[in-house]
Model the fold of this input.
Amino acid sequence: MAVMALLLGAGLRGLGDAAASARRGATDSVISLVEQARATAISSRGIVVLALADPGDLQGGDECGRLGLFKVKDWPADPATLEGTLIRQWLVLPRGVLLLPGAVNGVRNPRDEPQSTIRYLAASQPVQGRFHILAFSPRGALLWPAGSDPLALRIGDGGHRHGQPVPNSYGESWVKIGRVTARAYPFDR
Done:
């Protein structure tokens, strides 16, 4: 009995370590993609949108969230519908890693904002999807969601039930994105 209890404890600890490792890797990837979106907006002198896709938001989706970068030609007064060009393949988050809604210490989360429809071509076929977005101006500042305060992304472990993210209790990582320079960095409570 004691041996089984030790093995079970070690297995659960290993599961938590694997989830934390996947979350840390996803956090680094999110920070890198925010920086890539910002740098692309500056270098192309255009507007770049980072789309946050939940499982099921894309056709033929699986249980993984995704992040995509789009170049947007014209920025409308109301960004409910955008015409864009996918400028890199969708970044697939590891299975079990979620982008969670909810503010962090009063810092707004773009996952709590209304979704935008983005129309684009994929494999020469017109596609559209509804996503939460971050938009970067040609000067590298955050253009959307509107406001003057920084934003925060919550990255956690868990799964989706009935189309909604359900976090596990293993923990979370947070990424804060400045408004003027749109630099992303990890932070704690």
User: Anything to note?
Assistant: The longest strand covers residues 164-177. Helices lie at 2-44. Residues 12-16 have pLDDT under 50 and may be disordered.
